[in-house]
Amino acid sequence: MRKFKTESKKLLDLMINSIYTNREIFLRELISNASDAVDKLYFKSLTDDAVVIDRSELAIEVSFDKEARTITVSDNGIGMTADELEKFLGTIAHSGSEQFKGDPEVAASTEADIIGQFGVGFYSSFMVAKSVRVVSRAYGSDEASCWSSNGIEGYTISPAERATHGTDVIMTLKDSTEEEDYDAYLSEWGLKDLIRRYSNYVRYPIKMTVTKRRPIPKPEDAGEDYVQQYEDYTDVETVNSMVPIWKRRKSDVTQEDYDEFYKSDFHDFTEPARTISVHAEGALSYDALLFVPKRPPFDLYSRDYEKGLALYSSNVLIMNKCAELLPDHYMFVRGVVDSSDLTLNISRETLQHNSQLRAIANKVEKKITAELEKMRDNDREDYEAFFEHFGRALKFGIYTSYGAKSDELSGLLMFYSASKKCMVTLAEYVEAMPEGQGAIYYACGESLAHLDKLPMVKAARAKGFDVLLCTEDVDEFCFQALGRFDDREIANVAGADLDLATDEEKAAAEEASKANEGMFEKMRDMLGESVSKVVVSTRLTDVPAALTTAGPISLEMEKLLSRMPD
Ligand code: ADP
Ligand code: MG
């Protein structure tokens, strides 16, 4: 008996004794694993000449045995070796699992949330099963192995028999209680219902052997009073629709269908914030189904995050994450592009130079921009939630494109307005600018509270000018790359050449500087190299002194740059 790794054990405990009520998703999870395994084998056959398979035979099978109280999900995909069974099922394979240990946000969230954040995966089988056996044979191997566990202490792995490559997951269901009816799953009707609801758009046939009844042909010698006789027979039926959801017209699909597809294919617990479906015909024909998530995956802003859309050619998966289809600033978008115009054996190298793919990527980008603009204009609350999670990507987009993406993205930006005490767009800022305000002002710092007290911010506000308060490190880079908005300069309110003062104020300051020349001389001597000059400022309202910078880089940005690794 091998023990589960600690974090797996924690998750298992949650699963088994779960507050998590949506038990029925176990089947979706197992089918999605089966579909992934078939995908992997198919993909191998595309890239490896030694792997020859017949695509039409790839399938998933669901069956049940009422007497033995088992449900079995089988696939003829890539399979697992004994080592892989240990590696994949002995510990949580989910990429987010590392976060499970340390992340304070995770620790604070509810248990149901935790399960959701990692996707439920294989372990969800223990929500309905008291024991699970996985019999698997890896493609290319002639040995099979069996992983077996009752979900509590650990698992065993032993040699087994399996005729061909692939995997069977055999669950022995828990006994039904007053509260929980597990027996409902032990029926043709119950399983079909789950498959249709959660796995209808799986690309491979999900087959079930079903019992049907047919009339027995009337015997020749049957008399007048013959009563029609029936017989039962079994038939293999494909339960799922298999027409990919992205090929369907938006009018034929419910939002619920989209949500289920999104959740199961992209391993998210939450419905998407927006669903975009595109059907283009003509010179370049393609279907695209795109999702703007409600919340970011844990690793979105880390090096490990891989952006991209799944790429299909006539329903066949070419690539799981085609990065070329998404610009960096929309890296959070998930989805699928399917184009029969693309050749099947397209390789990663040729992709970059593929003009059709680039054309699709351009269209996809425009669609996303349009959808975000629509959300901004019609559904402010959603948009602000969106921006809180993904605004950083948009700002980086402006910065890393050196402003080339400004026209497209600047309208989508939001910043905190010191006057209005809420998020505003740049257009809204400009709209509210009083006569005589030349530039769009912003200030950068560690916190809103800190920024609000900054002398330069106070000075600008005393003049009736709003200031955008920025607390993210990328903000200033973004503004510098942007330079202007709506033909107005964007300026750091802390910049030394800010023309906030009137002529009289300037004259008075100059006079005061001259009058106190002696004292300033002494200050300069004492501060030495640390300052370049000491002057009377027109920008202090109720504080005695302020530090400022002379160059194009603000104090805050200097701080940031000095923190960055070389
Ligand atoms: P995820 O699918 O998100 O990776 P799961 O917990 O659902 O997480 O599955 C864990 C891993 O176990 C999978 O990544 C896969 O490598 C392996 N696995 C599960 N089911 C199968 C299967 N039917 N065939 C082959 N490998 C599988
Ligand atoms: Mg899975």
Automatic annotation (TrEMBL):
Residues 22-177 form the Histidine kinase/HSP90-like ATPase domain. GO terms for molecular function: ATP binding; ATP hydrolysis activity; ATP-dependent protein folding chaperone; unfolded protein binding. Its main location: cytoplasm. SMART domains: HATPase_c. Keywords: ATP-binding, Chaperone, Cytoplasm, Nucleotide-binding, Stress response. GO terms for cellular component: cytoplasm. InterPro entries: HATPase_C_sf, HATPase_dom, Heat_shock_protein_90_CS, HSP90_C, Hsp90_fam, Hsp90_N, Ribosomal_Su5_D2-typ_SF. The keyword Amino-acid biosynthesis does not apply. It is found in: Cytoplasm. ATP binds at residues 29, 33, 75, 80, 95-96, 117-122, 167, 348. Residues 1-348 are annotated as: A. It holds the Pfam family HATPase_c_3. The keyword NAD does not apply. PANTHER family: HEAT SHOCK PROTEIN 90 FAMILY MEMBER. Homodimer. Belongs to the heat shock protein 90 family. Molecular chaperone. Has ATPase activity. This is Chaperone protein HtpG.
